[in-house]
Automatic annotation (TrEMBL):
GO molecular function: acyltransferase activity; hydrolase activity, acting on carbon-nitrogen (but not peptide) bonds, in linear amides
InterPro entries (UniProt xref): Aliph_Amidase/BUP (IPR050345), C-N_Hydrolase (IPR003010), C-N_Hydrolase_sf (IPR036526)
Manganese is among the record's keywords: no
Origin superkingdom: Bacteria
Keyword Transit peptide: no
CDD domains: nitrilase
Keyword vocabulary terms for this entry: Acyltransferase, Hydrolase, Lipoprotein, Transferase
Span of domain CN hydrolase: 5-233
Pfam families: CN_hydrolase (PF00795)
Name of the featured protein: Apolipoprotein acyltransferase
Length: 275
């Protein structure tokens, strides 16, 4: 059964909380069919000194905004001051009921440049009526373990929040398509606009086709309607009608040792989780 999700990927520079609220209100008025609004990494935070506890005033404002507009809001990531006193780069998501439904701490900060503390778990959450969404932040996309784990946890769409002002954005475009292809998931790579990023945001389908793309660094909004049921179709019939990677193993086959991880690949645990 079809599960269409109308979404908006907003390529924009860093905003204050008031500016963000005004932007989202205008978008909701201009595009009333959109159900999910996604912004870039650190969209509301320029400095680590702006860090707040996860349940601080910023959180309450964002939750109230989502509830007032009746939208799913993914306002990028923020600097979080943890209970342990550490600072994290944390993505947050709010539901149309005005609740924070997911938070994810960036596992792979861009070292040596980024000074935040790494997170320690992958995050996938259900969007009721649509499907399952996985969260990653910028440099996470360079580590194939990230998107693979999100897909294994049941993600059908991976939101990758980005703030890349450097020339390696060219490689990130390749990685967005590669991560979509090898995991047969939708990938949205949402970069900041100038002057905080080089833009070139894009949305990729489970076979690696680019559905929407910003060609420059200007502020823009990419809109599309993605059918998350396409993930099941591609996995059943194969990418290009050929490749069915999640059916590579029979559950009774011998496990394969993975010395890099001091572990193993167990065929009995290979397939992704189902909703």
């Amino acid at each position: 059964m079809s599960r269409p999700l109308p979404l908006a990927l907003v390529q924009a520079p860093t905003r204050t909380l008031d500016e963000y609220a005004a932007d989202v209100q205008r978008l909701a008025a201009d595009r009333p069919q959109v159900r999910l609004v996604v912004h870039p990494e650190l969209h509301l935070c320029e400095r680590m000194e702006d860090a707040e506890p996860l349940d601080g005033p910023r959180d309450r404002t964002l939750a109230e905004l989502a509830g007032d507009l009746g939208l799913w809001l993914a306002p990028g990531s923020v600097y979080e001051r943890g209970d342990d006193g550490e600072t994290y780069n944390t993505a947050v998501v709010y539901s149309p009921e005005g609740r924070r439904v997911a938070s994810y701490r960036k596992i792979f900060p861009w070292r040596p440049y980024e000074k935040t503390t790494p997170g320690d778990r992958f995050v996938v959450f259900p969007m009721e009526g649509f499907g399952r969404i996985g969260l990653s932040i910028c440099y996470d996309a360079w580590f194939p373990e990230t998107t693979r784990h999100l897909a294994w946890l049941g993600a059908e769409l991976v939101l990758n929040f980005v703030q890349t002002p450097t020339v390696d954005r060219a490689q990130e475009l390749v990685l967005a398509r590669a991560n979509a292809i090898v995991n047969q998931v939708f990938v949205a790579s949402v970069n900041a606009a100038a002057p905080h990023g080089l833009g070139r945001s894009l949305l990729v389908d489970p076979e690696g086709h680019v559905r929407a793309e910003a060609t420059g660094a200007e502020t823009t909004v990419l809109t599309d309607v993605v059918d998350l049921a396409t993930v099941d179709t591609v996995r059943e019939y194969g990418t290009a009608g050929l490749n069915r990677m999640w059916d590579q193993w029979s559950p009774d086959e011998r496990p394969l040792d993975l010395p890099l991880y001091s572990g193993k690949l167990d065929p009995a645990r290979w397939q992704p989780r189902r909703p």
